[in-house]
Amino acid sequence: MLSKPRKRTPHRVAVVAPSPVSMFNLAIPELLFAKVEVGGAPGYEVTVCTPEPGPVATTGGLDLHVGRGLDVLDGADTVLVAGTGERYAPDPRTVAAVRAAAAAGRRIASICSGAFVLAEAGLLDGRSATTYWELAEELRDRYPALDLQGDVLYVQDGQVLTSSGYAAGIDMCLHMIRTDYGAAVANQVARLALVAPVRPGGQTQFTQTPLPPERGTACADTRGWAMRNLDKPLTLTDLARHAGVSVRTLTRRFHAESGVSPLQWLLHQRIERAKELLETTGLPMDQVARASGLGTADSLRAHLVRRTGLTPSAYRAQFTRLASGAAPGASSLA
Known about the structure:
The chain has helices at residues 23-33, 92-103, 115-120, 136-142, 168-181, 183-192, 220-228, 236-243, 247-258, 262-280, 285-291, 297-308, 312-319; strands spanning 11-16, 37-38, 41-42, 44-49, 54-57, 63-66, 78-81, 107-111, 128-129, 147-148, 154-157, 160-163. Residues 206-214 and 330-334 have low confidence and may be disordered. Helix 7 packs across helix 8, helix 8 packs across helix 9 and helix 11 (285-291) crosses helix 12. The protein has a six-stranded mixed sheet with strand order 4-1-7-8-12-11, with helices on both faces. The longest helix is centred in the last third of the chain and has 19 residues, at 262-280. The protein contains 13 helices and twelve strands. The chain is an alpha/beta fold. A hairpin with a 2-residue loop joins strand 2 (37-38) and strand 3 (41-42).
């Protein structure tokens, strides 16, 4: 007689809400972990808790009702501390409970300023850690024993994970899902939650450098001409000749209209063109580099890593819009 398959026990996540808590941080674990199903059963069980059950203040000025206390941590597999507006004196009950959970072998994580709670508990001493970039120097100054990685999305050092602020908490939770249940499940959750593809933790927090809005039209024709000729080795002299002005006048007008120099604008457009080609074609890297005016595959790699934190092949793997098996050079925009 065949035995029935054992029922999978959901991975238990205790989300600690330190007062005043960030509502956005608090929503991320429930949003993502609740979408995980494995074999038709929930992959996670998420419980929010706080030192004093009842109303908990938020950084937005509202109160949330949290009905569970810190005893939830005793049965958790993962403990995640949400960001808080009170970094200087975290509740000692929370600090002690998180320290005890770590000692019991639980996985410990934090989003944004939740890292201050982990640091106060001594869990970041000698470990690599991060937090929101505006708080990075403060965290380093207050807890010099940690190894601050101030410009990454998230860091895992052993059983402890820390993330930067805002959407980086999503990246960290997807990383945990990928660790627990594999890449296919994590990618499915990302699709269901309508969030960006999974980004590596080492990707810079400054993942995009948008240009300021244009404020004039005197150079509009020249900008349009340059966009049609990005694959050419354009110089300042070329741009000035097209505009019918001196290099000095072009530079002054261009900066007044675009907020950047002509060459900064040109480099930005070339990188954006390269990204589009990586997403929508199967062209080899040297052809992408030439078509976008970046010259060589090495130059493409250097600029893309500096701008996005990803190599061209990694960028293509994450953001491709090509159907599987599409022919090289095919484009979904055709």
